[in-house]
Specification:
alpha/beta, 12 helices
Length: about 260
């Protein structure tokens, strides 16, 4: 929690495999996170539909932590279970796996009713906190804005209740604008707030987000999609017969150096 409460907080980028985690560690980041969306994509599956198992995500998070030695926050969707007891079991498993943090969403995995009811969502966060026993940072997250429910009042109500239930960090991806973000930060203070890149309407700088009171900035699958855009450009060059552009990238000498550090 110390990284969240210090002046400025932290930027916590999300890795999707061993090499990306090592690159982030080598750049000097003090903590990293998994991305459920990026992990699902690497496995050829959809995010948020219970298609990635808890065991798979735990193994993935353990790999990132083992290679980098950094604190790892697990982006664990809805906690991998239908009941609060299931969420508690997931938190316990994350603690045993050595994770430093875990995020629990109020999503359901059901496209027809993607957000859980208020009481159910709060009870699941409460179960996560009780299981954590202070051994892991618990982030309570509502996906209202991501799921087409642009209700700022309900978002603040949920986040406030998550804080009252003991969540250490609060998170509502993509509030519509800076005013909404500031309203969230103000309403739940002093509990730290995570933001996914920026409000929906404009990408701000790290300094601007810090000025707004944000304590943690994560990137979700953005670095992964950035890398996939580079791959798409390379494949288009290859289709056009341009081998030079298609094969320009990080050297294997650099890759092997990073992997050697991870092995040690």
């Amino acid at each position: 929690m110390a990284l969240h409460t210090r002046d400025g907080g932290l930027v916590m980028p999300n890795a999707w495999d061993g090499l990306s985690a090592l690159l982030l560690a080598d750049a000097g980041f003090e903590a990293i996170a998994t991305s459920s969306a990026a992990l699902a994509a690497t496995l050829g599956r959809a995010d948020g539909r219970h298609e990635v198992t808890r065991a798979e995500h735990l193994a993935h998070a353990r790999l990132l932590g083992r290679l980098t030695g950094l604190p790892v926050n697990g982006d664990f969707e809805d906690g991998y279970g239908d009941t609060p007891a299931d969420v508690a079991a997931t938190v316990e498993a994350a603690v045993e796996a050595g994770l430093a943090g875990i995020g629990i969403e109020d999503t359901s995995g059901d496209p027809d009713q993607p957000i859980r009811g208020f009481d159910e969502a709060v009870n699941r966060i409460r179960a996560a906190v009780e299981a954590a026993k202070g051994r892991i940072v618990v982030t309570g997250r509502t996906d209202n804005f991501l799921q087409g429910r642009p209700d700022l009042d309900d978002t603040i109500r949920r986040l406030t209740a998550f804080a009252e239930a003991g969540a250490n960090v609060l998170y509502a991806p993509y509030p519509p604008d800076l005013d909404a973000l500031v309203a969230i930060v103000t309403a739940v203070a002093p509990t730290p707030v995570n933001v996914l890149i920026s409000p929906a309407d404009k990408v701000l700088t790290v300094a601007e987000l810090q000025k707004a009171g944000v304590k943690r900035i994560s990137l979700g699958p953005a670095l992964y999609t950035h890398a996939m855009e580079a791959l798409q450009q390379a494949t288009q060059a290859l289709v056009a017969g341009d081998l030079t552009t298609a094969t320009t990238g990080i050297s294997f000498e650099r890759i092997n150096d990073l992997l050697a550090r991870g092995a040690n």
